[in-house]
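[Archive record]
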Amino acid sequence: MVNLRLCIRAWWLRGPGTAFRLGLVASLLLAAARVEARDMASILIDADSGAVLSALDATQPWYPASLTKMMTVYMAFGALADGTLALDEELTVSETAAAQPETRIGLTTGKTISVEQTIKAVIVRSGNDAAVLLAERLAGSEAAFAAAMTNRARGLGMTRTKFVNASGLPDDGQITTARDMAILARHIIQDYPQYYGYFGSTSIVWRGRTLGTYNPLLGGFRGADGLKTGFTCASGYNIVGSAVRDGRRLIGVVLGGRSGGERNAQVTKLLEQGFNGLEPAPDAPVVELMESAADVQPPPRQLSSAECSTVPSVAGPTRFEGWAVIFGYFPSKTAAQKAIQTARTQLKPVMSRGQPAVIRRQQEGSFGFAALLVGLKKEDAGTACKQLWGAGGYCMALNPDVLNNPTALWR
């Protein structure tokens, strides 16, 4: 396993580069009992040759979560390339698209949005509503689009992938593998280089707000220029990333991280090993030709129901007084509470006056919990963050207006 002294990503507070700050509390994310969980599946390939540099359970079926949207966008790129879709075309939002659950961009029934903005909403903010809107435009319905996605995947050599929706929302029938995701990423890059740059977008302006990317590699890993993250309770934390250094492009896939920090650390480790001289063995397979495992198991469930509790939880008043500090975003209430406890212990006496608060938030198709201390003075909040930053941890001070703004990005 990777070094677990990592903070989960909280890029949406300080920008994408902060996702790789070393943290003080992420090891607590592994405290809950595992239910049918497996170690992460992963693969690292050379994008030009397709040579496999590293692989772990790469043909094991897995739930793709929002990595599904890579295929949704790939299909849209194909339509753009053959002229059946245009970037400036305005799409009218259907009731079905607008009704999609989180994560969503907030499309409104009857309103319009350009194809280009829709694609960026899918990539940057993992918008389920935007993904369904593209599906309806390209195939008439999401079901028809999912069938087309699966057929296209088979044509690309993604032998163990099946899609049943365009977003990656939980469905036991929607599966993939690390190998198949590497194949898809390679085709996105090679088949549509004129559009691949959208996967490197770090933000989208929507309704007057600038919203940052969910991809922690962008701005946080030298040479990174795409692709996508995903998370559901069943899948755990997934990522497909690509980076270029000295003219060499690598693609790394990690499925099933127990936290954002664990996933980020593993994909970083893979890519760094590749760029630091890791070469394929003489008999290493090309990713398209990798043999499937003989005794394939069903997709695991990476996080238990306790770790992905969907019960609303706010410890403290609905409106907070004073300043606050936030320590990160966690997949369970328990992990968030332990993060607060650990930070208070390490920051005494600065944090002695703060009150703990755990606030539920939806992100990437599932619930999570923000860990805060509230009721602080401005100077105490600033001092606390400086101390945590000095120790390599994540911290963000929130003034009273931002703290109590329900539309603020930290929410």
The CA atoms of residues 48 and 249 lie 7 Å apart. The longest strand covers residues 366-376. Confidence is low (pLDDT under 50) at residues 1-35, 309-317.
